[in-house]
Amino acid sequence: MADFHQGGHVATLHNLRVNQPDALVRELEAFTSTRKITLILPSLFSELEGEALPDIIDELNKVDFIHRIVIGLDRATEEQYRYALKFFSKLKADHVVLWNDGPRLSQVDARLTELKLSPSEPGKGRNVWFCMGYTIAQADSAVVAVHDCDVLTYSADMLARLVYPVTNPRFPYQMSKGFYPRVADGKLNGRVSRLLVAPILSAMAKVLGPREYLDFISDFRYPLAGEFAMRTSILPDMRIPSDWGLEIGLLSEAWRNLSPRSVCQVEVSDRYDHKHQDLSEEDATAGLSRMSVDICKALYRKLAADGTVFSEEIFRSIKATYFRDALDLIETYFNDAQMNGLHVDRHVEEKTVELFASNIMRAGQVFLDNPMETPFIPNWSRVHAADPDITTSMIQAVAEDMKEYSEAV
């Protein structure tokens, strides 16, 4: 991906392979003497038993520019939380583990529920939101970064490149988004980004007419990347979805809150692979099927908030236009893969497009049937206004959990 192409809205920071990674790290270490960085790791307990996370910890132990690591732990029993404390004790950096299902943080969540401010459903978005709240409450970091815990090709260089644009005080960027090629085991991956996001953005522009928001999202080479970093000052006003529309939701918030010139995408890796979700053709509440519905809803919500009026007829037109555009892209991806010695199963790709086309309509129907749905978790500015002591209670709950349950580890 070593080129210098720039799109229309978002600055693209490439890896031109002329700078040594150590040079970037030395600069970061100098910057972080006054601009501390917090890393958020949203994790399911099951990921502690996978092959990716131990290697991620080894790579994180190579860096000295991280001030704190905030781990959000979901779906964990008390025994599993104790295990997690021992598991993450290998981290060299200062770190905390938020036991999201534990009794103390559940009490914090109950206070939020009483105020009608609690995230409506479990998921990565909810996990990241609580970790962001904890980071805001600590008030000692200038930058926060987030990446997933299932990255099989993780390296410390990836993190350095991700945080550099928002840590360098001479750069104007408030948010950086990672991008990379999705290639592994001789196959072209990234099905949701390739076969849903790119063609539906194109289809929406054709059906709805030009929209700067659609151009903005289209500028990102990998809009569904789970790797992003932000200056902490923008966190309190960020509204994010609690479902699998998190990445699109964050980009939508960047479009709403920031100048496009203060957002960049940065090439963080030559090769990226992580845990692959099942397509889940028979169950729209799981796998890539659910993900595709949530992503479509996130796009519909944002456009509706900007004044777009949707109807069943419009959704049918978007679906039909999407289907034609997606089929054309399959041909392009197949040719690209052939030139690079990679495999693409065109039959499976077309079946995937058929499922996504169906889910474009499914998401549209959900959108039309729930006009009063509140799609975003309230931002932390509102939470603090409603209960100024909630973040103090969160810090205390996490500290007490860490103390009580690590004593027996």
TrEMBL record:
Q: What is its EC number?
A: 2.4.1.266
Return the broad EC class. Answer: transferase
> Is the keyword Glycosyltransferase in the record?
yes
Which molecular-function annotation in GO is an example for this chain? Answer: glycosyltransferase activity
Question: Keyword annotations for this protein?
Answer: Glycosyltransferase, Transferase
- Which InterPro entries did the record assign? Nucleotide-diphossugar_trans (IPR029044)
Name used for this protein in its record = Glucosyl-3-phosphoglycerate synthase
